[in-house]
Amino acid sequence: MSKLTLLFAVLAVTYVHGISDNWWRDVILYQVYPRSFKDSDGDGIGDLIGITTKLEHIKDIGADVVWLSPIYISPQADFGYDVTNFTDVNPEYGTLADFTKFITKAKYLGLRVILDFVPNHSSLQHPWFKQSVKKVKPYDSFYIWRDAKIVNGVREPPNNWLSAFTGSAWEWNEERGQYFLHQFLVDQPDLNYRNPFLNLAMKDALKFWLDRGVDGFRIDAINFAFEDKLFRDDPNSNISGIPKDDYDSLIHTYSRDQNETYGLIANWRKFMDNYSKKYKIDSKLLLSEAYTTLSLTIKYYDAGANAFNFMFITPLNKTSSASDFKRTIDEWLNNLPKHNVSNWVVGNHDQPRVASRYGVRRADMITMLAMILPGIAVVYNGDEIGMTNRNFTWEETVDIAGCNAGPERYHIKSRDPERIPFQWDNTTSAGFSTNKTTWLPVHENYITVNLAAQKEAKISHYQVFKALSTLKKKHPVLRNGTEEVILISEHVLGVVRRLEGSSPVSLLINFSERDAVIDAETNLNIPRELIVYVSSVDSNIDAGTQVDTSAMKLPGYASVMLASQSQVSELLYYF
Predict the structure, then answer these.
(1) Cα-Cα end-to-end distance for the chain
(2) Which pTM does this prediction carry?
């Protein structure tokens, strides 16, 4: 693909969208896990060419942005999150030329692209680390090195910090004669952002991909970027039943969530804003990943990033009540800084799939919430067809987080179940690969749960997803309206979007397995006669049905989106 072709593609997107400082305000962001999306060469591993051939699907379901999990050169100890070269493509996934073809086609289709940025650590095999071991400047302090603590003549780690993947976060290096910090795998030494040369090197990596047309970055594990200068011990969590070397046995007061992190984000925000101004192009999106408290999460907004909102993953879960959801959603919206854009994460590659977390009958509920609430909807590949986790045996487990946990606890820590290949159809390996052996086994349910089958079905998760994305993208009430989250009864939650001069759009969710009869007209202040625009799979409520909202029957675990007849007719035009 020539540079001229890429330039035309980029200019075409700029023409369509116009230069914008806030283009991500209501987008649907679709995460692609490259290793599991589509294999083009039959080696059982997904790749960039495969993703490129399936971009029409991402466009078809109404997504606006493609987020690629790491594609950088890596030994794959943590499947791409252990990077040896931040400015090249891992050969398993393709080449830089393949990336150019991918982003050119994405831009042609009107899709934006963001990349995973992995700033907390590199691979043990990165040239920087090899130079750091030898104390070659400026790499000597690119990583966190500390002397041993000697207790009764025995060498011990500098403090009690633990790795997120089990065991001490410190590893002794004989050549250097010091311990290095690794808050994840021993293969992933932590970088030291108190070294200004490191920050310059990472900005060079960001610029490398900005020059190739990416629209922003999702910043991995950013709250681990800095540690306490005094290296004080983390306090014990005193949670019973957890091994002493398990990450959750400590409260990570000193090993993460340090205030300097926000300054680093602000520095990168300024860098990318200057880049956009220099080339007179759209602002770049920064998304920060940090599983932390609400107050610390919100601070990323002030620093210049859009902070991932993980409420549908934690603290909310399948046991949460309607009032739990209302309280948590309201708390987020009330704390969101003014003039900032919210986001709602349905799922990702590190967490059990939404259909497994909440149950297949309630999977659409979370997607509906993410679509009707204002802001960015973040979905993981496979969410749109209701894919579920696959059960793995200990012998099948390859994720190092599961392997390190051991045969008794691997199922708690392993992320393999949610990373299985995408289920395209009912052919060999679910249409993911021509190879019967894939890097992770496909789910045995692919014969019936696959995209091709759901496209043909009258009612399916795919059909629901498309209807929701159309509503989000095309209806002014969802783009510009106000929002209210209302507890209708103990088990029924309502969300209403209103815009002056337009009929409201409402979502009703029954959190109970039992049927409920509700007066939504009074409780939500909506018209008595409305049309079911879309309903969750297995709700037994047909789209297009007219309902009396003053005495509406809502089946157990059902979720229903209501709109006026004229609104529904207008939206159907886009199908």
Answers:
(1) 33
(2) 0.95
